[in-house]
Write a structure and sequence with these properties.
Elements: H1 5-15, H2 19-28, H3 33-42, E1 58-66, E2 69-77, H4 80-83, H5 86-102, H6 106-111, H7 121-132, E3 136-145, E4 149-156, E5 163-164, E6 166-173, H8 178-195, H9 207-220, H10 226-244, E7 250-251, E8 254-258, H11 259-270, E9 275-283, H12 296-303
């Protein structure tokens, strides 16, 4: 089959491997990106897929958080020029304000009445497309809520209040002091923005991710006894958790302790036990392919077998 320049570019962006290695991996796996990532890892060419994803689409992340609830949305546009438009920014901010009631249901959010109109959010968006002349979409939304505690937020690369490129919410359950808890929550949200964890702890990592890691290790250690493989896997899991699980990660504000240790220490100041109930991190355009860039010609030349 023919391997396209776009496939090579996507694999390179996701793994950091060289173009020719990416081309070879895609050839071996018949163009399957996920299988190609595993192929590269088995060859030792790359350790793992970059977790951050590819920041390829324009638009804005919008978020809102009010004491015990909050929500984040991603609204995409074709160009950064539109993302800097005041009308577009007002729309994203308004949609974000409606998101907590939608409770992570995108269809419900799109069906909500847009304030000041008789239109739904979806219908208002279509009117904006007709007015501005550029395609737009509400791509996703996620809400968090706690009974006792706080939902804190952080926006990285903020362009206006509540609007930016990476939006994070962290929900903490606690009966402790609200002000101290909110301050900790913001620090943790900043940590999540920087490290992009997969889950709170190993128990929250999707089973298919664990299975994939195990399969790669088994392939790398063919011929070893089952008991030896299990020890290797358990050791690898600890390393995996340090990189990918929030509570096991080194705390970005103090690398001498893990996030779990930092939270435990904060309990004295807060005046009560603290539990991370959930978090969400949206980076603008992650996983979206954007047409046209200066890298295309370089990749095309590699694909043609130069």
């Amino acid at each position: 089959m023919t391997i396209t320049a776009g496939q090579v570019k996507e694999l390179r962006d996701r793994t950091g491997a060289g173009m020719m290695d990416c081309k070879a991996a895609l050839g071996e796996t018949k163009g399957d990106i996920e299988a190609a990532i595993d192929w590269l890892r088995k060859k030792g060419i790359t350790k793992a897929e970059k977790k951050s994803g590819r920041i390829a689409a324009d638009g804005l992340i919008g978020l809102t958080a009010d004491s015990r609830s909050g929500a984040v949305v991603e609204v995409n546009s074709e160009t950064d020029f539109v993302a800097r438009n005041d009308k577009f920014q007002d729309m994203v901010r308004t949609i974000a304000s409606l998101a907590p009631k939608a409770k992570s249901d995108l269809a419900k959010l799109l069906a909500a009445t847009y304030p000041g109109t008789k239109l739904s959010v979806e219908a208002h968006l279509k009117e904006m497309v007709a007015t501005i002349g550029e395609n737009m979409s509400v791509r996703r939304t996620r809400a968090l809520e706690v009974k006792h505690g706080t939902v804190s937020s952080y926006m990285h690369s903020q362009v206006a209040p509540g609007l930016g490129k990476i939006g994070v919410l962290v929900a903490l359950e606690s009966q402790g002091k609200a002000e101290e808890l909110a301050a900790l929550g913001r620090q943790l949200a900043m940590h999540v923005a920087a490290t992009n964890p997969i889950a709170i702890d190993l128990a929250g990592v999707p089973p298919e991710v664990i299975a994939r890691e195990k399969a790669i290790l088994a392939d790398k250690n063919q011929g070893k006894p089952a008991q030896v493989l299990e020890k290797i896997f358990q050791s690898a899991l600890k390393s995996f958790a340090k990189d990918n699980c929030l509570l096991d990660q080194a705390y970005v504000h103090d690398g001498s302790k893990t996030v779990a240790q930092a939270i435990k220490e904060a309990e004295g100041k807060v005046g009560g036990a603290i539990k991370v109930a959930g978090f969400v991190r949206y980076a603008l355009g992650e996983g979206i392919e954007k047409k046209g860039d200066d890298f295309a010609a370089e990749v095309a030349a590699a694909v043609k077998g130069r």
